[in-house]
């Protein structure tokens, strides 16, 4: 009976592991959700892979998971992702999360400054009259000859 239970739950563990792998590989980061929140989800999936199988845990190195996270950043983050790739340092997951958090907060601050709802702006131009003290030439004068 024990063997039957182990066989049944062992198979479900494999199915769970494959499902988690699929979620990890197919996860798409989106613009309208917090990057840090989404990175935590990817990190959780990587940890779940490690815990899926007791016989052969699927341990992904932090360097690999950090690279996956950078590659999954949305298109508006492409320049920032390129900047991260050019750095000659290895990221820990926590270090990458901190870096993304700082960037996300800076972007939010920039966006708030630009998007004040209902705000309008106008330019006021004032004509300065620099010749106030000079005599104005007479206007509409006609010469009369007799």
UniProtKB/TrEMBL annotation:
This is Polyprotein. It comes from Panicum miliaceum (Proso millet). PANTHER family: OS08G0421700 PROTEIN, PBF68 PROTEIN. Residues 125-146 are annotated as: Disordered. The lineage of its organism: Eukaryota, Viridiplantae, Streptophyta, Embryophyta, Tracheophyta. Pfam families: Retrotran_gag_2 (PF14223).
């Amino acid at each position: 009976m024990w063997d039957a239970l182990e066989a049944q739950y062992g198979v479900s563990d494999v199915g769970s592991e494959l499902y988690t792998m699929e979620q990890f590989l197919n996860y798409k980061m989106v613009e309208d959700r917090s990057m840090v929140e989404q990175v935590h989800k990817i990190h959780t999936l990587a940890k779940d892979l490690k815990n899926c199988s007791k016989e052969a845990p699927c341990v992904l190195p932090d360097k690999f998971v950090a690279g996956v996270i950078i590659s999954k950043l949305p298109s508006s983050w492409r320049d920032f992702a390129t900047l991260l790739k050019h750095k000659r340092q290895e990221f820990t997951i926590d270090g990458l999360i901190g870096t993304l958090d700082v960037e996300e907060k800076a972007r939010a601050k920039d966006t708030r400054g630009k998007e004040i709802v209902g705000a309008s702006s106008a330019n006021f131009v004032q004509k300065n009259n620099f010749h106030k003290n000079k005599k104005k030439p007479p206007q509409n004068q006609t010469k009369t000859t007799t």
